[in-house]
Write a structure and sequence with these properties.
The chain is of the alpha/beta class and 170 residues long. It has one domain: Rossmann fold. The chain contains four helices and nine strands. The protein has a five-stranded parallel beta sheet with strand order 4-3-7-8-9, with helices on both faces. Helix 2 crosses helix 3.
Length: 170
C-alpha cells in the first residue's frame, strides 16, 4: 500500500521553512492505519521485544495498539513535568531547537528487550535521546521503528549501530 497518499505536507509548521509530515489523514483512514500497524507489528515481533517505548505524543498512537497486539508492555517517553513518579531526564537537539524527554525511573528493568517507536524520524535527536534513556535504565534496544523517515536529514546517522525500520521515506 502506498502510504504517502495518506500523509499530508503542512508548510511552515511548526516554524518557517519546515514542511511538517502530518499523519492524521493516515490515522483517519482505517485500511492505511491497519496496514501501517501490521507492518510495524511484524518488525517489533521479529525483535522479540518485552516492551515498547514511544515518544510523546504521536508515537503513542502507534505504540499503544502495537503493544496490545504483541501482548507486551508500553512505556511513554514524555515531555518534562508530565510524569508523576520518580523519573530520569535526557536533553537533546531538535532540528529547530532543544528539548528534553523523561521516563519513570522504574519503567524498564535491567536486560529488558525494548523497541522504540515513533511517528517520524527527522534528525534523529529525539530517538537518540530515547535510546539513551532506555540504556541508562539497563534496557537493551533491539530496534527502532518509525512510520515516516525524512531521509534527506540523515537522522539514521545518529542511530548507527542500532537496527532501524521505517515504512515511508522522503
Amino acid at each position: 500500500m502506498d502510504l504517502k497518499q495518506w500523509i499530508r505536507d503542512v508548510p511552515n509548521f511548526p516554524m518557517e521553512g519546515i514542511i511538517f509530515k502530518d499523519i492524521t489523514p493516515l490515522l483517519a483512514h482505517p485500511p492505511a492505519f491497519r496496514y501501517a500497524l501490521g507492518e510495524l507489528e511484524k518488525y517489533c515481533r521479529d525483535k522479540r521485544a518485552d516492551t515498547l517505548v514511544a515518544i510523546e505524543a504521536r508515537g503513542y498512537i502507534l505504540a499503544a495498539p502495537l503493544a496490545d497486539r504483541l501482548g507486551i508492555g508500553f512505556v511513554p517517553a514524555r515531555k518534562p513535568g508530565k510524569l508523576p513518579w520518580e523519573k530520569i531526564r535526557e536533553e537533546y537537539q531538535l532540528e529547530y531547537g532543544t528539548a528534553a524527554l523523561e521516563v519513570h525511573a522504574d519503567a524498564i528493568t535491567q536486560g529488558q528487550r525494548v523497541v522504540i517507536v515513533d511517528d517520524v524520524i527527522a534528525t534523529g535527536g529525539t530517538l537518540s535521546a530515547t535510546r539513551r534513556l532506555v540504556e541508562r535504565l539497563g534496557g537493551q534496544v533491539m530496534g527502532i521503528a518509525c512510520l515516516v523517515e525524512l531521509s534527506f536529514l540523515n537522522g539514521r546517522r545518529n542511530l548507527d549501530g542500532y537496527d532501524f525500520f521505517s515504512l515511508v521515506r522522503y
